[in-house]
What does this fold into?
Amino acid sequence: MVYPAWIMNMRRKTLNFFNRHSVPRWTVFLVDASVVFFAFIVAYVLRFNFDLPEDREHIFIYQALIATAVYAGFGLVFKSYSGLLRHTTLTDITLVFVVTTCSVIVLVILSSLNQWLRWVAILAIPQSILLIHYVAVSLFLFFGRILIKLIFLFATGTVRNKKRVLIYGAGELGFVVKRVVLSDPRYGFHVSGFIDDDRSLQGKKINGINVYGPSILSPEFIEKNKIESLIIAIKSLSVDRKSSIIRSSVNLGLEVLDTPEVDKWVAGQLRMPQFKRVDLEDLLGRKPIKLNIGLIKKGLEDKTILITGAAGSIGSEIARQMTSFQCDRVLLVDQAETPLFYIQNELREKFLDIRFQILPADVTNASRMEQIFSEHGPDIVFHAAAYKHVSLMEENPHEAIRVNVGGTKVMTDLAIKYEVEKFVMISTDKSVNPSSVMGASKRLCEKVVQASARKEGHNTQFIITRFGNVIGSNGSVIPIFSRQIENGGPVTVTHPEVYRYFMTIPEACQLVLEAGFMGQGGEIFVFDMGQQVKIADLARAMIKLSGFIPDKDIQIVYTGLRPGEKLYEELLTDSEKTIPTHHEKIKIAQVEEIDGEIVLEHIDWLLRDLYTLCSCEVVQAIKDLIPEYQTTNGKFREVHSKSHK
Ligand SMILES: NC(=O)c1ccc[n+]([C@@H]2O[C@H](COP(=O)([O-])OP(=O)(O)OC[C@H]3O[C@@H](n4cnc5c(N)ncnc54)[C@H](O)[C@@H]3O)[C@@H](O)[C@H]2O)c1
It folds into this structure.
């Protein structure tokens, strides 16, 4: 409908007014009380046909004040003034009704008692006046509120360019979401329909809004109805179903919002800013992990935990997860000072009761690490400190060996010397049939841990956990893609056929804890990472989630495989098999036997003479220890081809 310019202008001004002002509760209370007072005077004057008897002239004002006090008292008890007038609901109207009815009943009783017992003249309020007053006050208070709501609807109801939204879920939650979405004009949503899987609801209308089946999530319907967003509003939706709805919506170019769980609503109320834009984790649809909490709790109780690499993605998440358990102390070791400072601040802000201690230290510095072990006597060690970037380590093999292998050697030796109960090393799928210096260095770390487990005369349990990429870790593809999308592209992918496993950081760390406490020592635990994800598809999904069209708004550019990079990662070598554990997502890799003494001897030699060797000699030394280490690209190809001859 086309309105004249002056109406549109008035509407804009009213809307601006409502956006800037909301009437304070005490003002509503005073206005309600004034309405009661003046309605009483009007009722009096009407009852006596504008001709007050002389004996009433002095007392009717006092009686109006008494009536006002009774109404105000019930108003305070039932808080009938507390609802936002512009959003008046049936509940607010009911409260007004309760207040006026209780008040009139009390006033009628008072006046009857007074008539009977002849207390004071001031209480002799004619009951006809009380009844006229009751009707007048109720009408004023009801219609006053409804009028304000109507003015508000007039101002907001037909604002153009509304964002058309579908609500997935036509149940109770969908209804609440609809109310919240429509009540906040700043977001300018128009609900174009509900979608529900329940066939008995499909084809019906809720509050005049159509309920559709999921099949309407089609390009034709979305385009015809100019739908821009979809809000998920179902309480118990399986992870698979949810990620499938998100995938189809994102593919249709819709912005997808998720309704937070009821326990996360602020003070029991859902508000627009609480709706969360779905992210990649929702899209990948990872199922929540079930943990054997009892076992982990018992294992960590009253223990001193040392975490290396504690300022990194994995180490810091393990530290966060420690806050759910009754550990005695948590020692955070890392060489990166500023990230340590940040994690210290975060943990201090969020968890006041846990005893965290920050220890800047380099795990390759044996003296410093010995100082920490002797001073703090850790019971359990999570070793996550490492250099992990494939391309950087490819250029600097000495550093991969010094930090990853050297650090692990220092830590395992100290664990045995200081009688640590449990040593859990974080490894990676890149250590399996490694094609990079980084992956090979991590396989060497695994061998150091395996060899330490086989040493005689100690009770330390050495456990290895091996898994693939975690979503959003420092320097991983996801934060890199996000930045590239923010900058308008292009998004760079090395090869169209590169696939990777993905897990969330909390998920991986939960499995590290679970595996840590199911192990007896010497095992390599491999996590079930689900299906490998094509990195090019991931890039596409991230572009769509950000509201852009891949290859149109934002280009995807292929840059070629980097040295040491594989198309696929594996979780097991060809000779390794797995044995299941009681946890469906954790398997034990049956690894080939190693001669621990020879491995450790060779590694000691490599670490001692490291900087007398050139890069190719370092790579050759690694290859001597890990025959399956192969690379088809990069500058070390010659070393590999020589070893074949
Ligand atoms: N991120 C992943 O996707 C992933 C997946 C599987 C396994 N892993 C493994 O988990 C481990 C940690 O990975 P991340 O993603 O947390 O890496 P990250 O780079 O975020 O963290 C590593 C931390 O180790 C610290 N560190 C490095 N050298 C150190 C030294 N000499 N002394 C003390 N601290 C040192 C770094 O400062 C950093 O804070 C790595 O071994 C990695 O291979 C990571």
Remarks:
- The first helix runs from residue 5 to 20.
- Residues 308-309, 311-315, 334-336, 339, 362-364, 384-388, 403, 407, 426, 428, 442, 467, 469-470, 473-474, 476 surround nicotinamide-adenine-dinucleotide (CB under 6 Å).
- The chain has a mean pLDDT of 87.
- The two ends are 84 Å apart (CA to CA).
